[in-house]
Target: Biotin synthase
Amino acid sequence: MTSELLNLLVDKALDGAAPSRAEALALLAGPEPLIDVIAAGSRVRREFFGMRVKLNTIVNMKSGLCPEDCGYCSQRLGSESEVLKYSWISPDEAARIAEDAVRAGAKRVCLVASGRGPGERDITRIENTIAAIKADNPNVEICACLGLLNEGQAQRLAAAGAHAYSHNLNTAEARYSEICTTHTFADRVDTLTRAGAAGLSPCSGAIFGMGESDEDVVDVAIALRELDPDSVPVNFLIPFEGTPLGNRWDLTPQRCLRILALFRFFFPDVEVRLAGGREIHLRSLQPLALHLANSIFLGDYLTSEGQPGIDDHQMITDAGFTVEGAHEQTLPQPRHDLVALRRRGAGTDLPANA
Ligand code: SF4
Model:
């Protein structure tokens, strides 16, 4: 690796500094051979995460029939995708699904529900689900992903034992209204801020392959970095027939890997998660992505099927990585220290941090 740009990006990342806009654009468009870009990103990945791969699983608590109109989503208002549609599954059913995933190596269980945001009864459902999962797996990380949060809801989730809250920014603010008209980019930032203030570990990422320019990719990376998330899912559009973006197949494996490398440079010591769409867009190059991302989803996605878990384990082993153990810490210690577990406010006898 001889590129001045790549050496600079590695040095900055190891110091915790982000790429400049010009550097980021050059990485996406530039002449550096892809294998050199991956090798540079891999140096940063190995510095903070070694060769560990964290496994996560999704439990779709409530599927389809959403009143929102996110153009990429198979569950959106007016979607003609023939995805599963059901109302809330029970806490026991969710716990059974989670148990299988934990046995297969998942450290984090993401409880996801379609909809604009949870009502108070929905929060109660999630509280009961967290209790059911934790009864048998007290150390598993639970992440809730329930849409826009109202006052006090993040506190209830934290008090119930949720570890994280996930809400993606999805794309650059300037083009947000092109992919969704029923809520705004600012609404999403607001929910992430509420989650972080309640002591939940913020998880927020993006979806690529929706017609964005290189500038849009860099804009959303910058916006995400400003939120200082602990985990950043990088999704590649799954083009569902029956949705407005159902015909978009813009991505190449090379493009996906450059985007992943860019995110590793923007988030050197943060959990960068290879998320939806990896199988269909990275295809035979999936294992190379493990040199950049330190985390993947195991099993199926919300409404589409993923690669069999056994193949994921084989891919990880074949590429020389190991599955992160239940008692291994994901984030490097300095960042880990920034996560202050809440010991005041809801669920305690102490006043809230108001
Ligand atoms: S992404 Fe979430 S809010 Fe948007 S349509 Fe899909 S389920 Fe609804």
Notes: The pocket of iron/sulfur cluster is lined by residues 66, 68, 70, 73, 75-76, 114, 147 (CB under 6 Å). Residues 98 and 109 are 7 Å apart (CA to CA). The first helix runs from residue 4 to 14.
